[in-house]
Amino acid sequence: MKTQEYIQLEERHGAHNYHPLDIVIQRAEGVWVYDVEGNRYLDFLSAYSAVSQGHCHPRIYQAMVEQAKKCTLTSRAFRNDQLALFYKELTELCGMEMALPMNSGAEAVETAVKTARKWGYEVKSVPDNQAEIIVCEGNFHGRTTTVISFSSDPEYKRNFGPLTPGFVFVKYGDAAALEKAITPNTVAFLVEPIQAEGGVLIPPAGYLAKATEICRKNNVLVMLDEIQTGLGRSGKMFAYQHDAGAKP
Fold it and tell me: Does domain 3-67 have CATH number 3.90.1150.10?
């Protein structure tokens, strides 16, 4: 099949929720991807960081094949011999105490929102249904219903209401605005160390450290969304590490 045939087939049978470039990738290796016509492209996107290690890395796919031969899925109804090892390596890599794996960035953010709210009610004693989470203008954290509720792009919200309440907007990179927005009901501050929607926006030096300090002082959780910046994408393991004193 040719490129246009694949595109026509996809347009005919696929729900239209995205507008990709009209290139049909057939195979990939390392930093190169190849379309069905045999053209080669240098991949600067790496699936929004999902394949920063390179396409079809032999150590990775060999490990996947070997595991698939032994056991493909246990579900969370049972334990298995891999999850504990994964937790240990991940927490050591991140310098955190515990981890909870998710299937996508949006699901991770949704879970962070739920965790922050639950903490607010059960630990901080915020009145029922009054928890607030501060977010930044120009953010992108995903496309699920709750997450688009705190997008500042009207197009992401159009015809998807009613939206989820409980979010307060502040200007990105403005620590004073963050401090002013905090109330007794504030449970968390959610921020991207580098914003990547509509450009690559780097906050002023010291912003994340100052935000961390403000949140600690006010008993507010710091939640950093590193879906697009983590695992070496910025030159450090996590982008917040460029700002000494910042920590989720």
Answer: yes
